[in-house]
């Protein structure tokens, strides 16, 4: 799917609430079905908060400002992406008063004992710990010998999810989980 397309509304935990999400370029739609038996479809959508950031990036993509193809500007070759990155650095600190949080929602749909089951896990928190902390836990697990796979392997192919989540929870992560069961019985 094209990154930035497929907009839809998603409900996250507070302080995020309702957010517009769209497809993002992550590898999990390709890697997860390789490692988790029975998984047929993986969709990754996200949003940057505050919403103006997401809108600005989408506009920059649509207008060519994220291109890596150099263009001529007064006789000099300039890569639009490099210019855009430089200009992002000039956005004033504290421009937004929105929530300083990011969210992750995992929705798994399937069938169990003749019923349709939807399992949802939500995590909301700061982006830096949500990115750096999992990487640090994986590195510690690798150092402790808990990762035995060799070569280039996606995390879902080499890290025990129960051990990983236990370590994440030990370090203060909060995960809200729900399970909805719908009968498939038709009368």
Structure description:
With 187 residues, the protein is of the alpha+beta class. 30% of the residues lie in helices and 26% in strands. The longest helix is centred in the last third of the chain and has 17 residues, at 127-143. The mean pLDDT is 87.
Topology order in helix (H) and strand (E) letters: EEHEHEEHEEHHE
Strand content: 25-35%
Note the total helix count: 5
Helical content, roughly?
25-40%
Average pLDDT confidence is 87
Contiguous low-pLDDT stretches (5 residues minimum) are none
Integer-rounded radius of gyration: 20 Å
Find the count of extended strands (DSSP E, 2+ residues).
Answer: 8
Widest sheet: strand ordering: 1-2-3
- Main sheet: strands, sense, barrel: 3 strands, antiparallel
Q: What is the approximate shape?
A: globular
Distance between the termini: 38 Å
Content-based structural category: alpha+beta
Keywords, separated by commas or semicolons:
alpha+beta, globular, three-stranded antiparallel sheet, 187 residues
The gist of it:
The chain has 187 residues and is an alpha+beta fold. Helix content is 30%, strand content 26%.
Structural topology:
Elements: E1 8-11, E2 18-23, H1 28-35, E3 45-46, H2 51-62, E4 71-73, E5 76-78, H3 80-88, E6 102-112, E7 115-125, H4 127-143, H5 161-170, E8 176-183
Antiparallel strand pairs: 1-2, 2-3, 4-5, 6-7, 7-8
